[in-house]
Design goal:
2 copies of one chain form a homodimer. Chain A has 209 residues and is an all-alpha fold. The first copy, chain A, is built from 9 helices and no strands. The model of chain A has no long low-confidence stretch (mean pLDDT 94). Chains A and B meet through helix 6, helix 7, helix 8 and helix 9 of A and helix 6, helix 7, helix 8 and helix 9 of B. Chain A binds a DNA duplex (30 and 30 nucleotides) through helix 1 and helix 3.
Chain lengths: 209, 209
DNA sequence: CTAAGATTGGATCGTCAAATCCACTTCTGG
DNA sequence: CCAGAAGTGGATTTGACGATCCAATCTTAG
């Protein structure tokens, strides 16, 4: 017997699709605020305004739903980040990105952390499928950052030998670590320190002029 | 009626203390591997070799136990880190610390993450007492790092105007973010990139010679 | 040595969550 | 328009977990 979780077919009617979407959106919200384990099917049922059977009509089990939430949040974050990162054409643009990240964290006083980071911390060790999906999400996010840095190399802002791969990973780790600390300390101090330190190092890699 | 969780008195006999310690140690291990929510009292009962009533004899409820585990892990981490950080007298010593952190992560393939980081991600938003304790733990950890950097300022390795506070926070965030990503990606790449980038920036702050 | 208090074992209770079932209604392709 | 598939509602089953109770045993101060 396989331990693999079965996949459900996509809804074939538009009504079905709407219901499925409503469930995923509500689940994403609840899981962001209470964690995956902290989100019960009764609570989700009420939040999404569906009956319990709908949830299991569209998702094989809670793991399957969780994976849908990961996909949803990945998409949300990339959609939010990619435009900002695509036009990283100057050190100023990099600082603007920094400000957006920090302002977002400040808005809810550090609470919540990163939607992907929280899920990753909770699920990676015990849900291999979730872990794989989250690893891919982080890789895609890092790639988007790297793309931005590559732009800065391309237009001569950064030296050609700049290790954009490494810097992208360092920036992503700074975001994740900074958000995690913000969650505990209710301050964005660590997030700012981490981002500013990495960015300062990037400044030092700028082409002399 | 108060929502505050009552504190239990410390055990008065040495046997009682041993039992309490055994419970905390087993709980710390289980919570590290399965999270706080993922650690059930039956599982803890078996792992610690006690009966369920013991747990509630020594701890008011699961929250109280969780706080004890936070204290336990904080103590464990500080005991492990402080000696290393106390003798940060050179850039080489800083790199040695980096190696220890990375080797530790590599040892279990990134699994588990940081005991404090994982608990923080899980508890900060919903358990104010745990959040406060964890915030204090992180502050103490950052202070230990800063102490080491101050040593390097004191002996002239780093410039006097070095912002050790900020760098300490940046290093801690790099550790937390790097470990979180290592958990998802099963690689220490991001951890290395983050630490090396911050450390490279510290190198640049070294006094010219 | 001996009571008072500390500690222990394990049955038990109430609650709640995950998942299933089945009867009913709404869609939609031909 | 009308079968048959898709979608819906809600009761229900099953099992686990946090927490409590109480009787029995050990520890220690006097």
């Amino acid at each position: 017997m396989s331990t693999q979780t079965a996949r459900k077919d996509a809804p074939s009617t538009s009504k079905g699709r709407a219901t499925r979407d409503r469930i995923v959106a509500a689940a994403a919200d609840l899981m962001y605020r209470h964690g995956a384990a902290g989100t019960s099917t009764p609570a989700l049922r009420d939040a999404a305004g569906v009956s319990s059977s709908q949830i299991y009509h569209y998702f094989a089990d809670k793991d399957d739903l969780t994976r849908a939430v990961i996909a949803f949040q990945t998409q949300a974050i990339l959609a939010n980040q990619t435009p900002l990162l695509a036009k990283l054409d100057s050190l100023n643009a990099l600082n603007a990105w920094r400000d957006v990240v920090i302002d977002a964290a400040r808005e809810h006083g550090g609470t919540g952390g990163c939607p992907l980071g929280s899920l990753s911390s909770e699920l990676s060790d015990h849900n291999p499928q979730a872990r794989t999906a989250l690893a891919a999400s982080f890789t895609a996010w890092a790639a988007a950052i790297r793309e931005g840095l590559l732009g800065m190399v391309g237009n001569g802002t950064l030296r050609p030998e700049t290790d954009t791969d490494r810097l992208a990973l360092a920036l992503l780790a700074a975001v994740q670590g900074g958000l995690l600390l913000a969650q505990a300390q209710h301050t964005t101090g660590a997030l700012e320190a981490a981002l500013d330190t990495v960015i300062a190092h990037i400044h030092d890699q700028a082409t002399p002029r």
